[in-house]
Here is the input.
Amino acid sequence: MDLATSYMGLTLRNPLVASPSPLSHTVDGVRRLADAGVGAVVLHSLFEEQLREEAERATRLAEAGTESFAESLSYFPTAAEEDAGPRRHLSLLERAAAAIDVPVIASLNCVAPGSWTDYARAMQDHGAAAIELNVYYLPGDPRIPGREVEQRHVDVLAAVKDAVSVPVAIKLGPHLSSTGEVALRLDAAGADGLVLFNRFMQPDIDTETLTVQPALGLSSPLDGLAPRTWIALLRGHVRASLAGTGGVEDGNDLAKYLLAGADVVMSTSALLRHGPGHAATLIEELEAWMSRKGFGAVADVRGLLAVPHGTDQAAYERATYVSVLRAANVGAYSAW
Ligand SMILES: Cc1cc2nc3c(=O)[nH]c(=O)nc-3n(C[C@H](O)[C@H](O)[C@H](O)COP(=O)(O)O)c2cc1C
Here is the structure.
C-alpha cells in the first residue's frame, strides 16, 4: 500500500499529521507520535504574547544596563533562568527535530505582522521543516470590518514568507465571510499550505458560579464537515497544499478528508482522547479501507469527491444542500 504523500513539497510517509496539542509539549511526546507512525508533527504554538513578553524583558535588561551595569549583571542570570517561553520553545523544536525521522513543523500563533517574525527565522534555524501560522484572531471589537481581518492574514503570511525559506502554511479560522476568496488571496501571496480549520476557545457560562469559563473541548466527527466542504471546493483552485483539521476520530474520517481533496489530514482530539498510539490505529484503518475499496495508493483516493472543475460552485453547494434535504425528507425541513 503506497501511503506516501507530498505536503508543501515535503515528502511524508503517510498523510496523517499530528496537529498542535499538549502532546507535543515534550520531546518524549513528539517521539511517541512519530513512533506511532504519523507522517509529520506540528508542534504546539509559540504565542505572539510570549514573544512580546520576552521583548519587554530584553528592553528592561537593556535599560537596567544603561542605568547601572553592575545591577544588570546581577539581574541577568535571574532573567535567563526565568521561564523564557520562546527560548524553551526553540530548544524543544531543535531537540524534537533531532529525535525523530519525520518532519517537525513549527507553529507560530500570531494576530498581526511584527518583529516576532524573526522567530519564524529562528524556528527555521532550529530545525523546523516548515512553519504553520496559527492566526488566532477573534475580532472582538464589533467595529472591525471583515476586510481588515482578512488583510491581517495576508500581511502576516507575507511577513513570514519574507523571513524564511522553508514552506509556510497558514491555519484559518472557520468564521471568515468568504473563505474561498481568502484562500485564493493567501495562495496568491505565496502560502505553501492552507490548514482548515482552527478551533477557537469559546468560553462557556457556568450558571451555578455565575462565571464565564474558558472552554476548548475535544472535537467530534461532525466537526469535520465544514473543513471537508471547503477542501472539496478549493481542490484544484489553489496551488497550496490543503490540510484538513477537525473531527478525525477513525480511519474512515481520514478517508473522507482524502476523498474531499486534502493532501494531509491532521488529528489532535482523537490522539488526546485515545493516546498517541491511536495514530497507528488511524493508519491501519485507512489502509484496511483502501484495500477493501481496491485503492493501491493515497494518490488514487485524493480528491475523488472534490467539487468537479468548471462547476458553478455556489450552485453546486446549493444543489447538494437541497438534494440532501430532499433525501432526508424530514417533515421538520418542510417549513423552510
Ligand atoms: C487542548 C488543545 C490544544 C491545542 N493547541 C493548539 C495550538 O497550540 N496551536 C494550534 O494551531 N492549534 C491548537 N489546537 C487545535 C488543534 O491543533 C486542531 O486544529 C483542532 O483541535 C481540530 O482538530 P481535532 O478535531 O483533531 O481536535 C489545540 C486543540 C486542543 C484541543
About this structure: The first strand starts at residue 5 and ends at 7. Residues 65-83 have pLDDT under 50 and may be disordered. Residues 19-22, 44-45, 107, 134, 171, 198-199, 216, 218-219, 223, 245-248, 267-270 surround flavin mononucleotide (CB under 6 Å). The CA atoms of residues 5 and 299 lie 8 Å apart.
